[in-house]
Specification:
Largest sheet: 8 strands, mixed
Number of helices: 12
CATH architecture of one domain: 3-Layer(aba) Sandwich
CATH superfamily of one domain: Alpha/Beta hydrolase fold, catalytic domain
Strand content: 25-35%
Number of strands: 45
Length: 739
């Protein structure tokens, strides 16, 4: 019996189980470390080592959770559960690891216990420590491991000796708590900074974040299905309310942790790093390498100003290196800021209407590319990912993200950049590098999953890479094939994907339409890859023409495209969905009299917005975990786009669903709306849905609410994920009259 797509999609965690990921390459290019489970429905990741030398042992498991835990079930601490929720991690076993500089030692936590792996011998051992361990990281020289336990920052020798606390947590008089070495909520959820401590290059010191959550207002999340359980207390920094106070400290391991804080650091175990935290309260990035002093990126609360700072490790004082200003906001990027080996600042900047790669004061790319992330910095070049920029040819592939390298010195200094990922087919690629070895992961529209291979780059200058090895994937093959038709449509040339039922032929007639967007910041859906379109294809096979549109506000096009939503999330993103729909109807079999829309998170907000504000266009909606009142969402995300609610209440009202004029629409304009929300969601809390439901009820608007007990924002439970798809399609068919 063939397994249904909803069940397969749920059991494989969207076909991610069994796929290799989280690669690290040894600096000499001889060894690759990665995570992968043994099968496409196996949630438990092992830590693997792949030797690339011809006479090496090949691929070996360096850490097998089943063996290390003696067959016992994995136990997760509240801190680890929160960390996984922030990173949207739904698998099990070894879900993260860190290595020393030589990639000879790895450290990881398993069931709250600390383990290290000898990556040359491919063997692991437990180091007895206090538990539960979170985020262990070896020192660059591999002699020690730093880790956190219940908010304390500790360090232990790799042989298990000299385990000690460097900084202890404390309860504050205001009812809060001080923790060390952990990222605060908005850093992990919105800044893509999951770390809270960083090793010095010589392994003798640490930079550690001290987080005091006393100022943050408390929310309580209850589980109505278990009224005997106490509500969970959450320090949630909603828009316009205080954030946690974050400071950074230098800790000298050899001086001990009991020295008093001192501005000069003389004889002290800890020295506070000093910058203008009143003006720049957000600690967004920390970089510490042998190429220069510690490098910080700090942002103002409105995110329109930021400073790159260097740190004097003797005194803790900082000095400005580079400043940025933007009238809308300043984006944060993966891999920067950082140093080149010869001490130049690497950053990504919005210059002249384009997003470019900068080394020092020199741009290495032009408006032909839209730089997305820095992947590695070598002795002469920078490895980075980019999509088509505002001055790319009009026929540039839709939804492509390719890997490039650009030179800043040496033999390639004359020649800009070159492409590393393939040029013969549109794709989505990512890479990591060590020495002359690049591990390149490439997904294409007409093949499931991604191909991962180790490439050997020319030592200097330009040239085609040579393949060294393929890293096998154990991911399942989907029971259906996605067939997205990618194009740019309308006056704004909005990137879109259209998916028709399998076997549909010209002349079969028009189809009811299902818009399937995310449609907002940091959520790109129209990509030149197969698996991201599988769910849309399944909905298409239920009798719909499915449309995915990446309007303004979505990433991957130009700074102006992304920042067009400043102050107006609702109007801009909804207008572009309508424009894409009407433009596609001119060339595709779309029945504009039956248009539904579905989405999750920002997509859920957009779906509810659509039937409330444009019932003339949209006739039914499924809104999953929607933000309905932006005053209930977090500071760093919301204030970036809408400002402070105290200063701009009219902007918050205009972008809210609970004050929307659509609530009072005439009865003949009421459209069917199903709202789905996990009651354990601590990101978009269930209050969003409850407030919208109350407002709809008060306005006499019929709607359905589906509460999910014990479910968080990422819905990892297999049965929930499967049945959610089935319930959504049943509702949409009923609402739109689809046979």
């Amino acid at each position: 019996m063939v397994m249904s797509f909803p069940r397969q999609h749920a059991r494989t965690q969207r076909f991610t189980l069994g796929a290799p990921r989280a690669f690290t390459v040894a600096p000499d290019g001889s060894r690759i470390v990665f995570l992968r489970s043994r099968g496409g429905t196996d949630r438990t990741n092992l830590l693997w080592v792949r030797e690339l030398s011809p006479d090496g042992p090949g691929e070996r498991a360096a850490a097998d959770p089943a063996a290390l835990l003696g067959g016992a079930d994995e136990e997760l601490s509240p801190e680890e559960r929160a960390r996984r929720e922030r990173s949207r991690e739904g698998s099990a076993g070894v879900v993260g690891y860190a290595t020393d500089t030589a990639v000879e030692t790895a450290a990881f936590a398993l069931s709250g216990r600390l383990f290290t792996a000898d990556l040359r011998a491919a063997v692991s051992r437990e180091i007895p420590t206090p538990t539960p361990v979170v985020d262990p990281r070896p020192s660059p020289d591999g002699r020690r491991v730093a880790y956190t336990v219940h908010g304390a920052l500790r360090v232990v020798d790799v042989d298990g000796g000299a385990d000690r606390a460097l900084a202890e947590p404390e309860d504050t008089p205001g009812g809060g708590r001080v923790t060390w070495g952990l990222a605060e909520f908005v850093a992990a959820e919105e800044m893509d900074r999951s770390r809270g401590f960083w090793w010095s290059p010589d392994g003798t010191r640490l930079l550690a974040a001290r987080v005091d959550d006393t100022p943050v207002r408390r929310w309580w999340i209850a589980d109505p299905a278990h009224p005997g359980s106490e509500p969970a207390e959450v320090a949630y920094p909603a828009a316009g309310t205080p954030n946690a106070e974050v400071t950074l400290h230098l800790i000298d391991l050899d001086a001990g942790a009991d020295g008093a804080d001192g501005a000069d650091g003389a004889g002290a175990g800890r020295t506070e790093v000093v910058w203008d935290r009143d003006r720049y309260p957000y600690l967004a990035r920390v970089h510490w390498s042998a190429a220069g002093p510690p490098l910080l990126l700090v942002q103002s609360r409105d995110q329109r100003s930021q400073l790159h700072l260097t740190v004097d490790t003797a005194t803790g004082r900082t000095a400005p290196l580079h400043a940025d200003e933007d009238p809308a906001w300043l984006e944060l990027f993966h891999g920067v800021p950082a140093w080149t080996p010869d001490g130049r600042l690497v950053r990504i900047a919005d210059e002249g209407g384009a997003r470019v790669l900068m080394v020092g004061d020199r741009p290495l790319t032009s408006a032909a590319l839209h730089v997305e992330a820095v992947l590695d910095i070598g002795a002469e070049d920078v490895l980075f990912s980019a999509s088509a920029g505002p001055e790319a040819p009009e026929d540039a592939p839709v939804g492509e993200i390719a890997v490039y390298r650009a030179w800043f010195r040496g033999s390639g200094d004359q020649g800009g950049w070159e492409r590393v990922s393939p040029e013969d087919v549109p794709h989505v690629a990512s890479a990591v590098r060590g020495g002359d070895t690049v591990v390149l992961s490439t997904a294409v529209p007409d093949r499931p999953g991604a191909r991962v291979e180790a490439l050997r780059l020319p030592e200097s200058g330009k040239g085609a890479p040579k393949s060294r090895a393929v890293i096998e994937s154990h991911a399942e093959t989907p029971v259906l094939t996605a067939r997205p038709r990618l194009s740019r449509v309308g006056g704004r040339r909005i990137p879109t994907a259209v998916l028709l039922p399998t076997g549909y032929r010209d002349g079969d007639g028009v189809l009811p339409v299902l818009m399937d967007p995310y449609g907002g910041p940091h959520g790109r859906r129209v990509v030149a890859a197969h698996n991201p379109h599988l769910t849309s294809q399944w909905f298409a096979d239920q009798g719909f023409a499915v449309v995915v549109a990446d309007g303004r506000g979505t990433p991957g096009h130009s700074p102006a495209w992304e920042k067009a939503v400043a102050g107006d999330l609702a109007g801009v993103t909804l207008d572009d969905q309508v424009e894409a729909l009407h433009a596609l109807a001119e060339t595709h079999p779309l029945d504009l009299g039956r248009v539904g829309i579905r989405g999750w998170s920002y997509g859920g907000y957009l779906a509810a917005l659509a039937v409330l504000r444009r019932p003339d266009v949209f006739h039914a909606a499924v809104a999953g975990a929607p933000v309905t009142d932006w005053r209930l969402y977090d500071t760093h995300y919301t204030e970036r786009y809408l400002g402070l609610p105290q200063e701009r209440p009219e902007v918050y009202a205009a972008n809210s669903l609970v004050t929307d004029e659509g609530l009072s629409a005439p009865a003949d304009r009421h459209r069917p709306l199903m709202i789905v929300h996990g009651l354990a969601d601590d990101n978009v809390v269930a209050a969003h849905t409850l407030r919208l439901s109350s407002a709809l009820l008060a306005a006499g608007r019929p709607h359905e609410v589906l509460p999910l007990s014990g479910v968080t924002h990422m819905t990892p439970q297999e049965q929930v994920a499967e049945n959610l798809l089935l319930l959504q399609v049943a509702f949409l068919k009923r609402a739109l009259g689809v046979a």
